[in-house]
Amino acid sequence: MKQLQDKICVVTGAGGGIGRGIASACADSGGIVAVLDINEQSANATAAQIVDRGGRAISLVCNTASEKSIDSAASIIERELGSADILINNAAIFRSGQLESFSLADWNLMLSVNFTGYFLSCQRYARTMLASGKGSIVNIGSLSADSVVPNMGPYSAAKAAVVALTRQLAIEWGPRGIRCNVVHPGMIETPATAAAYIDPASRVAREKAVPLGRIGQPSDIAEAVVFLASDQATYIHGAELMVDGGFGKNLVSLVPRLPANQ
C-alpha cells in the first residue's frame, strides 16, 4: 500500500517548481491530486504530467489571494473528487525592493498570497476535515522565517506568520482530528531560483555552504511533505521540519575568520 493511497490531496501553487514536485510525489504515493495554480497552463501541465505517468489528477485555476477563488476551487474538488484528506499550502510570490521604497500594493499582495491565502485555504478545506474528524495540513514555510532575506519586503515576515499560524491550527484543530505541520525548504533549485545558479562560481559557493554539499531539488521537499501528510506521521503535529541539507545549522561557519596563525 502506498503512503497516500486513494487520499485526496490538494496542492496550491502546483504549476511548477516545488509545488509540481509535491503534486507529483503525492500522485506517485497513490494520492488523487487536485493541482491548483493561478496559471491555468502551468496547472494543466502538472496534471498532464501526472496522468501520463499513470497517476490521478485534475487541474484548477485558483488565486489564493481571493477567498472567492479558493471557495470555487474547493467546491469543484468536492463535487468531482470528494472531500480533501490532505491540504498542502505551497503558493507563493516574490517581489524585491528595499523597505523604504516598497509599495503598499506589493506589500499587501505578498502578504495576501504568502500568508493570508494559507489561512483562507486552511479554513475552507477544514470544513469537511473537521466534520469527518480527520485530515492533514502541511504548510510550506522557509528558512527565511528565522533568517531574514534582505530586500524581499514582507516575505520573511509572511513565512514567520505561517509558522505561527501552523502552531495555532495545531492547538485548535489537533483535538478535532487535523494534524498541522510546516516544512522549511533550504536552497532549492527551481525555475524561480535558476538565475542564482547560472554562474558556476556562485553555484559552487552555495554548494559549499551546505553541509551535504549540494543544492536541493523539489523532490527533496516533496518526499518530506508526503511523509508528514501520511499516516506514517500520525504523532507528528505542530512541528517544523527543516529540509535544507544542514544549511541552517552552518551559518556561523560562514562568517569570515582570521587564519589560525594570526
What does this structure look like?
With 262 residues, the protein is α/β, with parallel strands linked by helices. It has one domain: NAD(P)-binding Rossmann-like Domain (Rossmann fold, 3-Layer(aba) Sandwich), CATH 3.40.50. It is 42% helix and 15% strand. The chain contains seven helices and seven strands, in the order E-H-E-H-E-H-E-H-E-H-E-H-H-E. It has helices at residues 17-28, 40-52, 67-80, 104-132, 155-173, 200-209, 218-229; strands at 8-11, 32-37, 56-61, 86-89, 135-140, 178-185, 240-243. Strands 3-2-1-4-5-6-7 form a seven-stranded parallel β-sheet, sandwiched between helices. Strand 1 (8-11), helix 1 and strand 2 (32-37) form a beta-alpha-beta unit. Helix 1 (17-28) runs parallel beside helix 2, helix 1 crosses helix 7 and helix 3 (67-80) runs parallel beside helix 4 (104-132). The relative contact order is 0.14. The model has no long low-confidence stretch (mean pLDDT 95).
According to CATH, the fold-level topology is Rossmann fold
Query: What is the helix/strand order?
Result: EHEHEHEHEHEHHE
Strand order of the largest sheet: 3-2-1-4-5-6-7
CATH superfamily: NAD(P)-binding Rossmann-like Domain
**Shape call:** globular
Poorly predicted runs? none
DSSP strand tally:
7
Amino-to-carboxy terminus distance: 60 Å
**Which CATH class applies here?**
Alpha Beta
Largest sheet: 7 strands, parallel
The SS-based structural class is alpha/beta
Tally of helical runs: 7
How many domains? The number is 1
Using only C-alpha atoms, the radius of gyration works out to: 19 Å
Mean pLDDT: 95
Helix content range: 40-55%
What amount of the residues lies in strands?
A: 5-15%
Can you name the CATH architecture?
3-Layer(aba) Sandwich
